[in-house]
Amino acid sequence: MDSTAEADVRFDNVTKHYQNVVAIKALNLDIPRGTFFSLLGPSGCGKTTTLRMIAGFEHPTQGEIFIRGERVTDIPPYRRNFGMVFQNYALFPHMSVAQNVAFGLKMRKLRRDEIAKRVRETLDLVKLNGFEDRYPKQLSGGQQQRVALARALVIHPTVLLLDESLSALDKMLREEMQVELRELQRKLGITAVFVTHDQEEALTMSDRVAVMRAGVVEQVGTPSEIYESPRTEFVAGFLGNSNFVDGVVVNASADGAGIDIGGEQIRIDGCTASAGERVRLALRPEKIDIVADHDVGNRESVTATVREVIYRGAATHVYLERNGVRMQAYVRDAAGLEPGREVRCAWAASSMVLLRDA
Amino acid sequence: MLTARPFYRRPFFWAVSAPPLLATLVFFVGPLLLLFYVSFMSPSSTQLFGNHATFDNYAQSLTDSFMLLTIRRTLGVTAAVLGVCLVLGYPVALVVARMTPRRRLITMMVLLFPLMISNVVRAYGWLEILGHDGLINLVLVKLGVIDFPLRIIDTFQAVVIGLLTILLPYMIISIANSLTAIDRSLHEAAESLGANPLRTFWHVTWPLSSPGVASGLMLVFFLTLSAYVTIALLGGVRYKLLVSAVFDAVSTLQWPQAAALSFILLALALIAGALIQLVLRPHRVQGRG
C-alpha cells in the first residue's frame, strides 16, 4: 500500500513549540484513508497537540499539514471540514439534541428539509431517535456521547477527530461504545484519529497505532505489531508489561543471534545487532512458561527463583528473580509454585524482541 | 431520601432562612405596603397624608406635562446609559474573559477602582471638567475654537457621562463573569462544524453570555433609576429625572405624591426587568435539566 497517496492526513516535518517548550519534534506521519488511527501515549506526550493541529486549533511552528493532499497549514478550522468529538463532548447547552446535530448543516447553509432529513438519519445511526427535543443536560453521559458523535458525523467530514472521547464514561459503557464506535467507523469508511492514553483501548479499536512520547512518535504499526514487536523500551513498557533483559551478542546471523545474558546463553530470531554489542531485550510475561527441565524442548530457557505468586483469576502472576533482576511470568497453572523455589522459565525464541535504543 | 425531599422540608431550612426572611418582611415588604397605601391617600398640610383615598397622585403624575417630560427624560437617559454600557462593556468583557485568572483579577480590581471613590467626589470631579469654567471650556476658549463657554453641565450628555463612569464596571464585570464560564471547547466545537468567528459569536458566545448581559442590564437599569447624587449635581435644576421629582416632592412635604412617583419608578423597573428577560431569554442557558 502506497501510504502517501492514500493518506487522508499527512504531517510533513511538523514541529510545535510553546514558548520555550517543544511539544512536537519533527513529526512525519501518514494517516491512511479509512483507517482508525490512534495516537497513544502518556499525558504530555503531544498526542492532543497533534490532534489539535489537524483541526487547526493549534498552528505548527514549522512544517506542513495536508488533508487529502491539500495543504491546510494556514487554513482556519472552520474551513477544514472535519468532525470532532471533544473529551467533555462540548454540546451546546442552549440547543436541543436536534439543534446540536443540525448546527454544522446550518453553517453549511443546507436547505431546511435536507437538514431535517440528515439529522434524522444520523440520529438513527447513533440510535438516538426520539431524543430530538431533549437538552444535553437531560441526557446521560453515553447519550451525550452519541449526540456529539452524530453532530460530528452529520456533516460528512473528511476526518473524524476523537479527543479522549470515551474516557469520561464508566467501564461498562465505555467498552460498549468502543465496539459501537468501531462498527460505525467501519460502516462509514471514515478516517478516524483517536487520542487516548489507554493502551487497551488503543489496541481494541485501532487499525494503526502511533505510540508517542515527549513529542516524538516512537513507533507506528498495527496493534499486534506494536504489542508483539515493540521497537523501544518505552513502547514495550507502555503497552502491557514486559521483562527487560540486558545481554551481549555472542554471534549474529541473518536468521538469529546468540546472546549471553549473564552466564546463560539464549537465542533470538532475527537480529540487527552485531557480535560483541550490548543489547537490551524485551519479553512479555505471558510468553513465559514455567516448566520442568525435561519440558523445555527446543525453546529458550533460564533458571530463576520464585519470589511471589499472586492469583489473578484469568492468570496467575509469578514474580521471579534471576541474577538480582526481577522478572514476571503470567501462567495458567501455578500448582506447586511457592516463594523460594527454583524453576525453569521457557519461551519461544521468536517471542523475545531486540529493542532499539530509544 | 434527602435528595427527594423538597427543600422546604429539609432540616435546618427554616432555621437558617427564617431570620433573614423575617427581617425582609418587617423592614422591606412592610414599609413598601405602607408606601403603596400612602400613594393612594390625599395630601395634607398638617400630617404625613390626608384621610381620604384618591387616584389623583398617579393621575397628576401621568398627565402633568412636566412630569411626562421627566419620565421621558428618565427613559431616554436610561436607554442611552444601557446602550453605551452594552456597546462599550461587551468588547472589554470579551478581552477580560480571555485573560489568565491572575490578570483577570487585577483587571477587575482596576475596573472597580472608580467605585471606591464617593459618588459626590466623582460628580464634583466631572463638574470641574464639564462645568462652565471647567477644563473642556477653558481649553476650547483658549484655543479659540469657541468664543463663549458651552453649556455641557445640566444636560442630557452630562448626566449620561456621569452615570456611565459609575455603571460601566458593573456591566463589564457581569458580562465578563458569564463569558469566563463558557467552556472554550464550545467555541472550538462551533468552529469544527464550520462556523466562522462571527457566527460562532452569534450562535454560541452571545446566547451563552445572555445571563450576564441580562443581569448587567438590569443592574445598570436599576442603578440608573435610583442614582441621585450624580443626576442632581450634573443635571442640576435644568435637567431633572424622576428620582429628582421624588426628592422635590418630599422636600415640599407632598408625601403621597412622592409615594406615587416612587411606585411609578418601581413599575418602570419591573417592566424593564421583564423586557430584558423577554428579549435575552437567559433561562435558555440557565434553567434546563
Describe this structure in words.
The complex is a heterodimer of chains A (358) and B (289). Chain A has 358 residues and is of the alpha+beta class. In chain A, 25% of the residues lie in helices and 36% in strands. Chain A has 9 helices and 20 strands. Chain A has a 6-stranded mixed beta sheet, with helices on both faces. In chain A, strands 13-12-11-14-20 form a 5-stranded antiparallel beta sheet, with no helix packed on it. In chain A, a hairpin with a 4-residue loop joins β16 and β17. In chain A, α3 packs across α4 and α3 packs parallel to α5. The model of chain A has no long low-confidence stretch (mean pLDDT 91). The radius of gyration of chain B is 23 Å and the shape is globular. The two termini of chain B are 20 Å apart. Chain B is 73% helix and 0% strand. Chain B has 289 residues and is mostly helical. Chain B has one domain: MetI-like (MetI-like fold, Orthogonal Bundle). Chain B contains 13 helices and no strands. Chains A and B meet through β6 and α3 of A and α8 and α9 of B.
Distance between the termini of chain B: 20 Å
Going across the biggest sheet of chain A, name each strand in turn: 6-7-8-3-9-10
Instruction: Provide the β-strand percentage band of chain B.
Output: under 5%
User: Level of helix content of chain A?
Assistant: 10-25%
Please, what is the average pLDDT of chain B? 90
SSE topology string of chain A: HEEEHEEEHHHEHEHEEHHEEEEEEEEEE
CATH architecture of chain B: Orthogonal Bundle
Helices and strands of chain B, in N-to-C order?
Answer: HHHHHHHHHHHHH
Q: Uncertain spans of chain B, ≥5 residues at pLDDT below 50?
A: none
The percentage of residues in β strands of chain A lies in 35-45%
State the shape of chain B. Answer: globular
CATH superfamily of chain B: MetI-like
Q: Number of DSSP strands of chain B? A: 0
Poorly predicted runs of chain A are none
By DSSP (H or I, 4+ residues per run), the number of helices of chain B equals: 13
Overall average pLDDT of chain A: 91
Question: How many angstroms does the end-to-end distance of chain A come to?
Answer: 28 Å
Query: What about the largest sheet of chain B?
Result: none
Give the strand tally of chain A.
Answer: 20
